Hints:
The structure is a homodimer of 597-residue chains. Chain A is α/β, with parallel strands linked by helices and 597 residues long.
Amino acid sequence: MGTCLGVLTLEGLSVNAYQGKSMQIHLHQTHHTIADFQAINATLLSTLERPGLHVFPELYLTGYPLADLCLTAPFIQTYLGFLKTLNNAVVSMKKNDQTAALVGGLAYTLSDEGVPHSIRNVIFEVIPGQELRELYSKRLLPNYDIFDEQKYFTPGTEPAVWSWQGKRLALMICEDMWASSFHKLDPARDLATLKPFDGVINLSASPYDVAKGDKRRDRARVLSHLLEAPFFYVNRVGGEDEILFDGASFAVNGDETLGMAPQFLAHTLSMELSPKTQYTTPSTLLENTWESLFAPRFSANKSFPRQLQEWSDEECASVALALQFSLQEYAGKNKFKKFLVALSGGMDSALVLTLAKLSLRPGQEIEAVYMPGPYSRSISWDYSLELCQRLGLKLTSLPIKFLHSNVRMSFQNTFPEPFEGLTDENVQSRLRGMLIYTRSNQTGAMVINTSNKSEIAVGYSTQYGDAVGAYSLLGDLYKTEVYRLAVWLNQNHAGLIPAGIIERPPSAELKPNQTDQDSLPPYPRLDAILEGILSFRHRREDLVAMGFSEEEVKRVFHLYSIAEYKRRQFCPIAKIKAKSFGFGYRVPLTKHTGFYQ
Amino acid sequence: MGTCLGVLTLEGLSVNAYQGKSMQIHLHQTHHTIADFQAINATLLSTLERPGLHVFPELYLTGYPLADLCLTAPFIQTYLGFLKTLNNAVVSMKKNDQTAALVGGLAYTLSDEGVPHSIRNVIFEVIPGQELRELYSKRLLPNYDIFDEQKYFTPGTEPAVWSWQGKRLALMICEDMWASSFHKLDPARDLATLKPFDGVINLSASPYDVAKGDKRRDRARVLSHLLEAPFFYVNRVGGEDEILFDGASFAVNGDETLGMAPQFLAHTLSMELSPKTQYTTPSTLLENTWESLFAPRFSANKSFPRQLQEWSDEECASVALALQFSLQEYAGKNKFKKFLVALSGGMDSALVLTLAKLSLRPGQEIEAVYMPGPYSRSISWDYSLELCQRLGLKLTSLPIKFLHSNVRMSFQNTFPEPFEGLTDENVQSRLRGMLIYTRSNQTGAMVINTSNKSEIAVGYSTQYGDAVGAYSLLGDLYKTEVYRLAVWLNQNHAGLIPAGIIERPPSAELKPNQTDQDSLPPYPRLDAILEGILSFRHRREDLVAMGFSEEEVKRVFHLYSIAEYKRRQFCPIAKIKAKSFGFGYRVPLTKHTGFYQ
């Protein structure tokens, strides 16, 4: 709700021929599976029964991201058929000048053979009793990291102002609001030449990122000042494989926040189109540079060597919510009702099981399996059992010792090479991978991967062993962040995770008395180096200057660069940061690695 | 060598102020690992000792494709350091107006913090005794399928004509010659306004594709006519994970071919800058449309139902060469000296082993392992043994029967669910995956995957089972193409593959009397449907109109659409077609699949 002072309202009125009539705006952060046209249609049509201006997210009509789907004939024809059906339904509605919707969708230009000549990411006007009408084509197409929009879409060339009920509304789609000096084009500045406006509307599909914080609102405030009108931002909700859209739609007017929708929930944020407030010309537009997008989050206290900035309680809460949401999205949309977690007695699998259990919905089940090997310590079983008891889950033991010794014997009888070292370690991990998937075959359960980002970065895992899984929950969390989240979770959920699991030194238990720190730098140092490499794309000398030793930096670069092949075959990772492994991370396997040294 | 008639030469002279001096042109289709700056430097400098114009491929100085590497500081700094070293070496050479090189490389504009503001894909002029000089920035940046150049590069805005030794040479980089009506820009037509030229030079990094045939030369001929000058095309050689660059550099002059370099071999094609010939204005530029790029190759005889066009002997030879090259590239650049193949007694693994054996180089070894399970037929061992004897390889048997019954027992004692069906089948496959990787751990051998494109498309494989491997040799060959290649190979290599392997019905041997055709349409039909889906992006009704039954098309769409998660975790596939699974194939796992039905 706007709470502007009358005097400022008057200012708005005088400039803007503001007609004093109230207008309800509804920001619908919707939640649909990609290409679920029936549900998309039903939601939109039922919404039109309510008066006011309804705003839906970017590509509401199709879902996002579609990647190659938007090029395939079955998708295109079905979508175009749906558009026609929708159009007919809208046209046949009773004319009504109290209701309109702004809806994101695709506009196709096809060749005679049905091949797309151009695809535009557009805003449709939907008004009862009228034909659907294209109002605006997205101008700034993001093409970095996970974004490939220039691969698929043709950019629009003109800004758009839409008039309805006597109001002038500026239209934008997502990235249009994020131009920086890296771009040749700034849709916001172009709009500024078309003032005055009664409002600015942005339809977004903007991925979640724990460090994003208030960036969207900060930017919207700047644009509200620049364009001298309230700014309405509606964002998609959904988990699409690795990408999480968190909603969190909002409206701001100058420095004031008018309303804020929750994260990760379908929601409608309704308010009146607020009158103008006092705007100040922004001295500079907030920059959305490479640095601001991908800057690593080092500790502010400039510790030496540098450390990762520790997550606040709010950030932990946000990450926990995001991870539970991502799991339920992947499971729900892919029709899994059961989950399966291989517990090791260590931190990662304990956190995965706990998060999964906390996320459970009616009708869902979760199963935990413990697969002890020859070097598993009995305390690992005790901890695992204790965790399961606290979570109210049964724990099943499925030992690999006999299989392991059988494989060993068979190899010793067949091949001359010794059965030792990595061979002996990896076979244990792969037997577990085989067993957990055999169990998954029996029950149809979805296997949740338990790797963390530190392991994935340095290849500290066994391909087809502990690296298996349908979906990775912790693959964007460094090991130190896994601990941080576990501690936070315990503080907020009655200490569900046994303290011993958090306190014991991490170990793969693949040989006697093994700990991770035998072969890796201590995690606080490792994680800081990795963040330097991955997010800031640092060189060795940059990292040495930050207090790390030549040797450890060199070793981490080496481990990182030879683990690419493992990452290539890894499952989708819930993405909670600007820079993650997965689709937005593209590095050739085959290369000379001298430049890392 | 040009073989132009004197009279045509005269015509060239009169139009073009051709000075009658001969100029040697050397097209260097080089072969280096990405970022192997030392080798790249050495090759270039030693080349400059020989007079003439030396032309190197697109991005010769870095390698291609780099993906995110070109954004990372360690790569950028090392490359810029190398450029400086190269420049110093060239400047310090004795001045020499008989020698010049045109070399593909990257040009960076960095922010003060070293962040790339723009990266251009350029041609450098390299002349002994002079500073390196940027001549041209690639204008048409491919951004479809495996190409993401608009993600990384800023396009050039101007055509470039380079004068040397009194000759006017038009410059292009790869895609610049492939504009179509889909593009807003046509660099070739822009160049045409700058005639006359003495030659046109195109530096390329153009991937291999068995169906490409003479497309490059056909296009070059059209442009030679359009620009009224001989056309020199130099292409990269190299296997970069899945992408294969085949070289096959050439020169044409009007309708005449002046020279042709071999495929998949580093080579220098030398010739004189040929004089002009008779050119005819092309009535239309050959179109490089979506259809021509991705058209499926159905049989020309319009059989009903349609069938895939069978490979000619020349195409089989080309594919066999490409696959052997790809294997050696992946192994060589990633430092593998040993290969490991799991033989099943079936067609795919037999072909993989045979191709791998034929590709072997001195110092390399290959090992074959046969892992019989409870449903393996003894004839499978006999065939496998016979194949190994013909190839001069030892075959080791590593039975899974005991492990399999042990897993079954353990599950029957632990869980109430039956151990049968897919559970029982997949465990056999996963035990084999585990064993072959255990063997790989012992010897450091590279496991070659044996899946074919038909299996990958319909998910007829076990994740972490027969789907394991470092590299897939047959993942871009449909099953019918696997057979075709095997038959061709036998005709040309003294029947290495036992006829029985080619003739027996395909079976996974995971249950009694199982054959692939129990659960899949006959391969000739399946493969044609799949090509329709994948390359032509057909709808169900399109395929039904081509003679397939509703039921089988529906079933294939269903199997295809639910197998996405298996493809996501698959290894790199040697890419031999325009449309392949892998990096250039991007389909969300999570979606409503109603549009396929």
